[in-house]
Recover the amino acids of this structure.
């Protein structure tokens, strides 16, 4: 039987990825401290790893597929295939200096820059013309200035930690989110590629479903056309005649964000008995 080795980042990304896998029917089980959890799909061999290690391990074929931030793929210049942008944990890699400092002044002298992203930082600083020395940080990068570094290049989602440490963002170096990645040689193996394509199909179905809800409603025949015009369906709404009645039922998958504003308009157009239902998959 063909099996795939799959790497999942342990830590803050793990719950979202585990939930996504569960929603497509792949359940992980075992002790939460176990780095090799069991899997309901016998074709998959799962290992939990630090996210920074996953791109390089997939590149050299230690694992077939996995999940990693695009920032670490770029930082390591990992030669892997990005097969799906999941959009989880969107972050910016930003350059920051003390809030009362002037970046123009820093360009006039040698500076010390602390970062976990040595390669991305070097590319940015070279392009911006800084005279710099890099220090690799191992977490808590924002505490370095002003005593131990003049600048930090770090990731942020909200900017709150940066502001709390009296720093200001002077530039965005890179943008990142969680990616589903694969070893390039693995994708050339037909049996393994078939499994990956199955996972990808279901994964996209779940991700599409999360962005939509199903609206069902009834209405008189006279207003069917008016209601259909209001519905931003995936293709076109389903319209069917109700049994033993001159009324009609209309069903459409609509963007989740549009539903709150759409429902009052549907009622005003003559819709009744409106149901809003979750969608598990939209393939």
């Amino acid at each position: 039987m063909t099996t795939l080795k799959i790497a999942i980042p342990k830590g803050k990304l793990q719950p979202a990825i585990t939930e996504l896998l569960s929603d497509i029917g792949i359940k992980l089980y075992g002790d939460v401290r176990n780095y090799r959890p069991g899997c309901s799909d016998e074709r998959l061999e799962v290992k939990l790893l630090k996210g920074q290690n996953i791109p390089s391990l997939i590149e050299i074929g230690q694992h077939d597929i996995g999940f990693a931030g695009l920032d670490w793929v770029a930082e390591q210049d990992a030669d892997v295939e990005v097969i799906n942008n999941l959009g989880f944990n969107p972050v910016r890699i930003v350059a920051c200096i003390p809030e009362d400092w002037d970046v123009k002044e820093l360009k006039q002298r040698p500076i010390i820059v602390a970062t976990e992203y040595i390669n991305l930082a070097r590319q940015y600083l070279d392009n911006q013309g800084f005279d710099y020395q890099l220090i690799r940080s191992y977490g808590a990068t924002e505490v370095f200035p002003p005593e131990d570094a003049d600048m930090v290049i770090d990731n942020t989602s909200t900017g709150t930690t940066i502001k709390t440490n009296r720093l200001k963002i002077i530039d965005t170096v890179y943008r990142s989110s969680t990616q589903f990645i694969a070893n390039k040689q693995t994708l050339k193996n037909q049996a393994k590629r078939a499994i990956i394509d199955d996972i990808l199909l279901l994964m996209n179905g779940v991700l599409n479903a999360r962005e939509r809800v199903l609206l069902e409603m009834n209405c008189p025949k006279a207003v069917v056309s008016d209601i259909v015009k209001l519905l931003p369906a995936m293709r076109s709404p389903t319209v069917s005649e109700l049994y033993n009645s001159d009324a009609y039922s209309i069903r459409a998958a609509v963007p989740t964000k549009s539903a709150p504003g759409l429902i009052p308009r549907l009622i005003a157009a003559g819709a009744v008995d409106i149901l809003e239902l979750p969608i598990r998959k939209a393939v």
Q: What stands out?
A: The CA atoms of residues 142 and 150 lie 11 Å apart. The longest strand covers residues 167-176.
